[in-house]
Predict the 3D structure of the following.
Amino acid sequence: MKVLLDAKKRRYVWSSGDIHTEEGTIKEAEIKTNASIVKTNKGAELRVFDASFSDILSNLYTGPAVVNAKDAGAIIAHTGINAKSKIVDAGTGSGFLAAYLSNITDSITTYEKNKLHYEIARKNLKKINPKVEIKNKDIALGIDEKDVDLVTLDLPTPWEVLAHVEKALKSGGFLVCYLPNMNQVQELIEASKSYNLLLEKVLETIEREWTIHGQICRPKHEMLGHTAFLVFFRKY
């Protein structure tokens, strides 16, 4: 796959066929020449480079709300998962968190009870990592996997799953819950006291991009603020 970037830094992710842009059309044959710069039929130039994981991810279909890069990055960094890690994810949604995690390890299973969301995620994950196992199942009915390094829950009532999580996690394994509201966080922490789950931290990530243009160096007027709280537990 390729990425084409126009003068306004608009990105076009290409896999096959012609590309139609506001600046004109680029023929498939021209893209296949592997030139670093191509021109539309109107003469506009676009830069061309190989697509990365994040480029492919940005081109996926989004149905239900997605876990974005800043939160996925925090989960990956704070849990220290690696290529040998075994992960269970639930509340798959459009499959974006499962996709981010699958870029670290192939050993990942994700649960989604909603049939429509399951189909969206299945198609998305097939493009990212076909090795991801996705189950159209309610995780509240049980977790099939054992000796798991990380469980991630993007569910409105994660406390209903804690008994299953406790059994599935290995000693020292992580549970991370993605919750938009503080009252959910408080209820989860209170419920966790009945299990061998140690609260490590409650984290909120804020992302602020800067504008750099000549002598202009300032934060952008809009930033990516609160999306959710990340609640980290360890199994003991």
In short: The mean pLDDT is 95. The chain has seven helices and 15 strands.
